[in-house]
Amino acid sequence: MNALMREWQRFTPMERVTRWAVYFALVLALVWAVRNVEIIPEFLIDAPEQMLDLLKRMWPPDLGHYHPAVHHALVETLHIASLGTLFSFIFAVPLALLAARNICPYRGLNAFAQLLLVTSRSVNSLVWALIFVAIFGPGAAAGTFAIAFRSIGFVGKLLAEALEEISPGPLEALNATGAPASHVLLKGAWPQIAPAFWGVALFRWDINIRESAVLGLVGAGGIGVVLDDAINFFQWDRVATILLAILVVVILAEVLVTRLRARLI
Questions:
Q1: Distances (CA, A) of 212 to 27, 64, 141
Q2: What distance in Å separates the CA atoms of residue 133 and residue 220, rounded to the nearest whole number?
Q3: Residue 77 and residue 80: Cα distance in Å, rounded?
Q4: Which of 27, 32, 58, 123 could form a Cys-Cys staple with 240, CB 3.0–4.6 A?
Q5: Residue 221 contacts residue 233 (beta carbons within 8 Å)
Q6: Pick from 68, 69, 61, 65: which is nearest to 240 by CA?
Q7: How many Cβ atoms are within 10 Å of 51's Cβ, its own excluded?
Q8: What are 183-214's pLDDT values in tens digits?
Q9: What is the C-alpha to C-alpha distance for residues 185 and 152, in angstroms, rounded to an integer?
């Protein structure tokens, strides 16, 4: 009878204690973060009013400022994103081949390639831009290399994972016939990872358009330079025009990438 009256509980006592401990740690971390950020209550309360005033200054946008200054900077931004994406694949593909354990059986090379990919991903594009501005000076070259070095880790990691998920059958069959390594990769691996390759390429190009739009804030060329100048001179109607131009390009890039993915994948 006691067995039938036993009450079912979803969590054991230890699991309940652990859950409450996790909740307490999250609340503690949140309180600690808020205290260290040092949010000034007066500024926080005044923020909606300041935002409304800023929007009034930005309306209506100065559309006459679009050509030629904004247009030329926007085209440069697209060039930075496109060339940076292309250069990233030139470096990322060899690293992906070295990082994939089923392609490169040497653990030392696997670890080295993965270390380079992690290093690329761990540094933000703005930090890469600052580094290359110091090397090449201000301009589009610094932005292009910043986009490329930031993208290497992203592209290489996804391609390496795609390579490790391919079926080993075609590769083993080609190796059994004595085919050279280049043919094994082109005929055995490439057909299996081609959809992933094009998907990563289009997705990364779409991301790079967004990232390259702000590199000019640190002198790395593109539309960010024009945006920074407009903000520094308090030309908020021109700022609105620049932001609208960026929004339109991002939307068009999203539509283009979606359609290309549907055709290629």
A1: 36, 24, 12
A2: 6
A3: 5
A4: 58
A5: no
A6: 61
A7: 10
A8: 888 888 888 888 889 989 998 999 999 888 88
A9: 20
